[in-house]
Structures are given as C-alpha cells and as structure tokens.
Amino acid sequence: MSTTTDPGTEGGFRLSQLIYDTRYRSTTFQVIAVAVLAYCLYQLYGNARQNFADADLNISWLFLWEPAGYDINQRPIEYNSQSTHLRASIVGAINTIIVAVLACISATVIGVFAGVARLSNNWIVSKMMSAYVEAFRNVPVLIWILIIFLAMSNAFPQPRAFRGETPDAEMLWGMFAFTNRGVYVPSFVNDGAMATIFWLVILASIVGVFAYRRYAKKLLYDTGRLLPTGWPSLAILIVPGLLAYFILGQPVGLENPELKGFNFQGGVHLRLSLIALWFALAIYTGAFIAENVRAGIQAISKGQTEAAASLGLRPGRIMNLVVLPQALRVIIPPLISQYLNITKNSSLAIAVGYMDITGTLGGITLNQTGRAIECVLLLMLFYLCVSLLISFFMNIYNNAMKLKER
Amino acid sequence: MSDNTNNDVSYVRTEFLEPSEPPMAVGGPVKWIKDNLFSSWFNSILTVIALYFIIRIAVGVYPWFANSVWGTDGLAACREILDGATGACFSILQERWNQMLFGFYPSEEYWRPIVGLILLAVAAAPVLFWTLPRQLLYFTGIYPFLAYWLVYGGSIWFPILLLVALCLSYLAYARFVKSSFVGAIAVFIIAFSVLMLNPLGGLLSLVSFVATQLSQLLGGGDVTVDLIIGDRRLSDLMPLFGYLQGWLDGSFLGLALPEVTTRDVGGFMLNMILGTICVSLSIPLGIVLALGRQSNLPVIKGFCVIFIEFIRGVPLITLLFVANVMLAYFFPAESNPDLILRVIIMITMFSAAYIAEVIRGGLAALPRGQYEAGDSLGLDYPQSMRLIILPQALKISIPGIVNVAVGLFKDTTLVSVISMFDLVGIIRGPILGSTQWTGIYWEVFGFAALLFFVVCYGISQYSQWLERQLATDHR
Q1: CATH number listed for the domain at residues A85-156+272-401
Q2: DSSP symbol at A254
Q3: What is the interface size between A and B, counted as CB pairs within 8 Å?
C-alpha cells in the first residue's frame, strides 16, 4: 500500500508529510497520543502531589508490618490480633480463595445439572429450570447474598435450643448442627503415622482409578478390546481404603460437634457468612453456567447425534463420546469468565462480614491506618494476579481441549 | 355418476359425518401428559420429584401470602395480628414505599423524578424502536440536560448553557468533518474547552512549570509565562461559561427549581440514574477502546490493552473504593467533586472495558473483505469505520452490549457498600436499622428483587426481540 501513496522524496521533507505521508503518519499520531497521555498523567500527578502536601499525607508501606490489632473469626493460618497487617491480608487472601474455590466447584455442578435439565424433554423439569435461570440471572447477586444470609440467621435455631431433655432442635444424624451462629460438621481425627498411611492409600487409589481408565482406553484404541470401567473403578476406589482402614486399626475417626456450655465444641465450624456467600455465589453463577452449557450442547448439530446413532452407539455413549467432547469446546471459554466472575464477586463478602481480603485489607486495615491509596492498590494487585492466574491455567486447559486442526 | 346421489338409495349417506375425536390415548391432554411428563420411567421419576418440590414450595409460600398483613406501623403490630401464624408483613412496603423508590428525596418534590422517568421513556423510545419518527431523537439529545435539572434542581441556565456550548462545538465540528475527521474532532474539543474551561491558561501554567524546573536546574529562579490582558492574567481568567451563567442567574432566576443535594437522591431512582448514565456514557468510550485495541499503532494499542485488562481483572468494589477514598486526590484541590460524580466515572470506566471487549468481538467477526472494501473505495480510516465497519460490527454486538448493560444495572447495587443509599443501601441502612422494622427481611428484599427482575427481564426480552429484527442473514 505504501508504494502507491509514496509521494516521492525529491522535494525534500515537508512538514505536511507528517500527516499525509503514510510512512510518518502513524508515528505522528503516536507521538501526539503519548504527549496527550503524558499531559493528563502530569495533571493527575500534580493534583495528587498538591493534595498530598495540603493534607500532609505520604505514601508508605511500613504500616504492613505494624500489629493489626483486630481479630479475624475464620483463620486458616495462625493469626491473632498482635499479628501484622500483612498477615491479616494474607489470611483474608486465603479466605477469598477458599470461598472462590468452593463456589466454583458447586456452581459448575449446579450449572451443568440445570443446563442439561433445561434441555430435558420433560416439560415440568425444563420449565422449572428456566424459572430458576431467569430468576437468578435477573436479580443482583448482592440481594441474593443478603437474603440467604438473613434467612439462615433467622431460620436456624440458637445453640441453646439443642439443650435439655426435650430440645427444640435436633442435630441431623447426630453429626450436623445448624445454628444461627453457623453450621457445625464433623471433622476427621487423625491418629499418628497410621493415619498418614491411610490417607496415602486413599490418594493412591484415586490415582489408580485414573491410571486404570487410561489403560482401558489405550487397550481399546490399540487392540479394540473393551474393558469394563464402571465397577472396577468403584472397586479400586473403595476396596484398598477399606482394607487399609481395618488393617491399620481404624486410625481415622470422625469427631462430632457437641454442645458444651453456650456453644458447640469440636468438629468444623462453618460460619453463616461463609455459607451464605458460597451458596449465593454458587447458585447465582450456576444460572449463568447453565445457559452456557445449554448453548454449548445446542451448538452441536443434530447430524452429529444422528451419525453416532447410525454407527450403532447407545444414547449414553453418544453423549459421552460424541456430543460432550464437542460441546466442551464451546462451553469452556465462557466457563473461564464465570470462574473469574466468582472470584471477583467474592469481594461482596464485605456485605455479610466474611473476612476475605476485601474485608481485612480493604476494610478494617484501610480504616484503621488511613492508608487508603496503598490498601486499594494492593487489593487491586491481588485480584489482578488471581484473575491472570486463573485465565492462564484455564487457557492451558482450553488449548488442550481445543479442536486440533491440521 | 350423479345418479348415485339420488335420495332413494337409502344406504348411501348424503352428507359427511363430523370427524370423531381421536381416542384419548393418541391426542389431547392425555397424550400431551404422556409425551411430556411420563415418556419413560426415568422421566416419570423426574416429574414426581419436580411436582413434590413445587407442591412443597407452594404449601410453604401460600399461607405467607394469604395471611399477609397490611397497614400496621411496625413489625411488632404485624406479629400481634398474625398471632404466631406464618404471614408476610407487607405494611413495610406501604410505609417505606417512597423511601425505597426515592431515598431521602424531599416528598413535595416527588413529581420531578416521576416526570423525569416518563420523559425517559419518551427519550429512549426512538433509540430502542427505530420505526418511530426520527425527529424524536432531538428530544433524546435534550433529555440528559432536562433530566439533570429535574432531578437535582438548581438553575436551569447551567444545563442550558452546557447544551448550547455542545451545540456550538458540534456546529464547528460539522463544518470541518467533510475535510478531516480528526481535525474536526480537534476543533470540537478546542471549541468546547474554550467555551467551558480555560485550556490556554492551563497550558501556560504547564509551560511555566517546565520553564521553572529547567531554570532551577540551571541555577535560576522561578519563571512565569503568562499573557496579560488588561489588568488580568490569562491563567486566572474565568471562562466565558461562568460569566454567562452568573449573568443569567442574576437576571432571570424565575426558572430555578429547589436544589436537592446528591446525598438525598437515593432508592431505586439512584440505581436507575447510575444505570442509564453509565451505560450511555460507556458505549462511546467502549467503541473508542475497542478500535484502539484493534489499531496497528503499538502505543495506542498497548494503552487500550492495559486499560481493558486491568479494569476487567479487578472487582467493581475495588473500583468503588477508588472512587470513595482515592479519586478525590487526583482532582484539583478546589474542585472537590461529588461522590456520585466519582462513582459515575469509575462505573463508566468499568463497563466501558467490558463493552469494548464485546465490540472487539463484533469487529473480529466481520470478514476481512469489508475492511478491504473500505480501502478499495478510497475511504480513509475514520470514514471506513463510520460508514462500513462500525454499523455492521455494532449490529453483531448488540446482544452482548445488552448483556453488559443488564449486568451493570445489577451491579449498581454495589454502591451500597460505600454507604450510598441506593435501593439495597436504603434497605440495609434506614429500614432494617429502624426500631419498628428490625427483623424483617423477606418482604423488603423480595420487593427489591422483584423490581430488579422486572427491569432486567424486560431488557433481555427487548434484546431477544431486537436480535430477531436485526437478523438480516438468511438461515
């Protein structure tokens, strides 16, 4: 293109060439853009410098190493009120990741179920799922979080309702206690080295299931022999664990929560704020994932199903071997952005008092130290890193699943 | 042949029988139920489970509605009337209806936002339905200024002068757009800033600053570069706009509405205001960002990519924190921008980044031939974008843009986190915090959910209708 508009250089360089000559024009525009940008940034910087000088403020990161002085009720790592603000932020970051992972997994399960059910030829089921999807997609997630949180804290009984000869409330199977302070579930009690061996056996049998399935697939592709996968997988998963459990002398037990004094002791305490956030994010994002799944399945043309049927595959095989692998390619990219949305929406924890990083670093630390700019910048940096990490790993997965065109 | 129809052949019918109904098993409701609900044993189980859930929900919810109480002045009175039975206490909707819709807006001025809402429908109609007369678009152009005056009150001269300044700048732009689009944009910006601001003065102070730095580097003193007109320095000169407004306000005050402070504008109205303003501002910004990201100028492309990816990588809450605690530092010390202005800036940037990605998808979906067709016709970049590429790309992007708009409208509830009194903020603050209503939640949050559902569902239905209208390809 540049050869046709080349004006010839025998007249020497003229100033108008900066705009009309395609060789220089892009440079001119970029220089102008940089100049305008620099001017704007200079103005912003000047304003900020002036305002900081007026308010006697400065930028300093030393507050991160000062004692935080506040408590966090959900502590995945060691923390007390004398720990530093930095440690409080790390606790918050871990809490963010906990709720995000829980919500991602449950939202995927709910979404896939609802998406497939919406395509069911059962009229009542598909209508129910449409109602679910529309109701949750069209109402802000903040309202759902608050409704679920308030409903649970009002509907669940107080811990003291579990006391007495004829208590008002009873524990579910003697293991789960739903109270307005949270849900108490049993925890594992490990008994020394034997317990470690037991968990290793469990881990090994999970790996074994995958190895067996891989072997069966290879055998099928190489020799055409079809091994059964359903029952052997189940056996590999359960039998070694059971054997190890009894041979090692029952090294792992369950500790049930028990009412002691005014509160439950033992077991794992899941706070209502965590459950409300988890549940609301899962069910809200599940509605979006359901739409993605439905769109993905509908994107596979009917000819594929018919071709598979004409090859003599059974309906289950058609779904597993023909439709789903192709639908996954359509589903995964929007699924990535839904996972990113969950992570970002988990910052709404601040509305129900769940101490994620927005609650610690962006909430109490910010208010106590008054270091607004530093805290907000760190907060953004954290979310930016998490978002980039998620999209990085999911893109690797996406590339592995993508149609390999030759 | 006609002999056969003779009446005396008694065993041949002379008239047709009415066709009889098909047997129950192959038609009608029974067949429908059999096909759609009980086609296999698995489906039958699903139907039974689904029916069980529906009945459970209906049995739970029905008494709540049936026993609902209206017209009490507190939750305690409701509970007294209900006497232990399940029932909703809808009196709260009666009592706090105005607060949930208008926030702390002065009650004698409620007609203003209502008129604003009705006019919004008139202003939005020609944009949404293009079969309406195009002349209505003039009203759409005037509407933002009118709505600002209606909702926030104050002197009418401020929005009118702003509108006049914009129109004058547009005339200047239209004068030059034939010869060069970029030049015309520059003319527009210069005309507008001469009318509104004092850009020459700002430029002079920048020159003074650089000159001072240089001279201090060389060991000299401060340098001031300025123009002196009469007895005034140009860098202090008030803009034309301010003079005019001051004069008009002094001369004709008759048209001023009572001012409403921005803290008092709240409730669902605030969600609507934030939603409409931010969506309409972010579409042009999103187009610019999308074009910038597609550009082959590395500096511009790099800036757009960093901006878009940064905004998309952080939650809206952190951007609202920026608006709340950080953004004010970047404004001139004396300007002290209002919180709602800062929030609008941040939400607009947020949704612009998402809209830019949607439009980028639309741009990428166009076949290369369209770009090349523009080039081969001899159009320059702005012309081929305005006349060929964008009309098609935007058409493809409409469903995505509407999705972003719905998401943004829902996200306006997040401003309650930085203690603004939008619908959720009003419910969480003044309503649940008041002594007579503490402990109530289903009724108010259900009402809020219903309001959002109606608006968002309406928008998405419109988008689906639009998609069908715009489908010009043959399927």
Answers
A1: 1.10.3720.10
A2: E
A3: 161
